[in-house]
Amino acid sequence: MGLTAAAAAVPGVGFPGVARAATDSSLVFDPAAYTEQTISVTDTVGVAHSVTYRFYKVAGYVAAPVDRAYQSLNVSVPVSVDGTAVDATDAPILFANQVGGYMPSSVANATGIGGAMGPAGTLSRQRLALAAGYVVVEPGARGRSLVDANGVYYGTAPAAIVDLKAAVRYLKFNKGRVPGDTDRIVSSGVSAGGALSALLGASGDSPLYDPYLAEIGAADASDAIFASGDWCPIADLEHSDAAYEWNWGANSLASGATVDATVSADLEAQYTHYLASLGLRARGYGALTVRNLDTYILETFIQPSAAKYLAALTDTARDAYLAAHPFITWSAGRATFTWADFLTHVGPRKKNAPSFDGFDLATPECNLFGAGVTRARHFTQYSLRHESGDSARLDADIPAKLHLMNPMFHLVDKVNPHRAKHWWIRVGTKDSDTSLSVVANLATRLGNLGDDVNTSYYWDGGHGADQDPGDFIAWIAKVSGRKAHGNHGNHGNHGNHGK
Ligand code: DHB
After folding, report:
1. Whole-angstrom Cα distance, residue 320 to residue 434?
2. How far apart are CA 89 and CA 70, in angstroms?
3. Is the model's pTM score more than 0.85?
């Protein structure tokens, strides 16, 4: 590294503007610098496999790091599974970001692949991928709460996406040295990490990030990725307050309290114009508007989700579920119900109004759009003016930062030809961390653009649910054209719709 160890170790002591030569030898991956480890990976049908892998710690993926605790990554490369050799030279690369809550995420102290195996349903995506013979990269990234000794916030927008792009550039710069096929990078993430995964997919090679990437000495390579897996993405932030009221406006909070009706109605009204501006279309529905979006989402995603759930139950369990949920009509393998009954079934909304640009600046997202020594800022004119009066204007840097953080910008406003063309998009039907229309709009727009989109809503799934981890592994093999090793519970796509 061009930095002294002491300087690099102090959070926030970076050298903005001192971009390193992109061929800085510090960014050359060393294929010999690994430890070998063996772990047990339980597959989706409960069978344990012994997986031996090489674990590489890359101490810095940029030449001019701001904070190497976050701007580092780990690479795990399978060597053998149950004693059978695996050649991962040309394997797909799962690029699994660990971001939650738009907070900083560090892998610097990890001594092996992340994601301990939990009970069924919480299987580790990284470990399943490793057992399938894929290379797994776990990047760290700066996040919103990081603050240096001078009180300067150095992980707010767009730091996290800039870091993830820099990590992709590092891998591509090291094509041929780093194991795996750098032309088959499949990103994954959940929630804020899901939004960043979607953004990574949507914004590949966008020149808008170049100044930020130069500032941290990112390698001179592409940051476009092959495919993007996104679970419950907390995305499209500047429209999420409106989307939330459109979706959950009729629902009460868990306390029983209702949200401010005027605020809710004001925000919901904004959604009409925004949705129309997306120009989404769907077969059988035509142009999607606030008048048909609920029916479209219900029929395209939510009723099929319930049907898949019910079809998988035993007759006895299904009869019991239907008896307990009389709002569902079950006939000939189809589940039908009204949008209003579905909303009642979901129950309390998780967030107050406005849900993202909170009037009190206490939300994660207000912190995400902090800058300099300011911890949190408003990023919508509505919330800003509610607090500061009708002539208040957003800070001048906010609009561009919103674009840098929003996958929809790269799919609608400025359609990016270098975006990922394969998408795996998931959300639970009981997830009210954001509007269920965020996923619907993302998936529908991608479909309208002609991309390969596999979308599914998990029935009664809450925030962060992953009900088909093995199917994702099988999907990676399918879209990448690279066979998965063995068949470790990756037993195909049983019933995913949205193809
Ligand atoms: C996450 C959840 C939220 O509700 C939010 O607003 C931002 C991030 C998360 O779980 O990552």
Report:
1. 30
2. 27
3. yes
Domain 25-236+413-480 fold: Rossmann fold (3.40.50)
Top mutation candidate among 188, 191, 351, 439 for ligand 1, by most atoms within 8 Å of CB? 191
| Sites in the chain below the pLDDT cut of 70 | 1-24, 117-123, 487-499
The residue to which tokens 């519970």 are assigned: 489
Out of 97, 98, 99, 102, mutate this one to test ligand 1's pocket (max ligand atoms within 8 Å of CB): namely 102
Q: Are 280 and 297 in contact (CB under 8 A)?
A: no
37: Cβ contacts below 8 Å, ≥ 6 apart: 52, 53, 55, 112
Nearest atom in ligand 1 to the alpha carbon of residue 434 is: 4
Distance separating alpha carbons of residues 259 and 403, to the nearest angstrom: 29
Alpha helices in 207-302 (DSSP H): 210-215, 240-248, 261-278, 293-297
**Boundaries of CATH 3.40.50.1820 in the chain?**
25-236+413-480
Point out the ligand 1 atom lying closest to the alpha carbon of residue 194.
Answer: 11
pLDDT score recorded for residue 488: 52
Q: Which residues line ligand 1 (CB under 6 A)?
A: 100-102, 191-192, 234, 364-365, 433
Centre of ligand 1 to C-alpha 230, Å, is 13
Q: What ligand 1 atom has the least distance to the C-alpha of 433?
A: 4
DSSP code, position 25: G
Instruction: Let me know if 340 is exposed, middle or buried by CB neighbors in 10 A (0-12, 13-18, 19+).
Output: exposed
Quote the pLDDT of residue 124: 87
Instruction: Kindly give the distance from the C-alpha atom of residue 459 to the centroid of ligand 1, in angstroms, as a whole number.
Output: 20
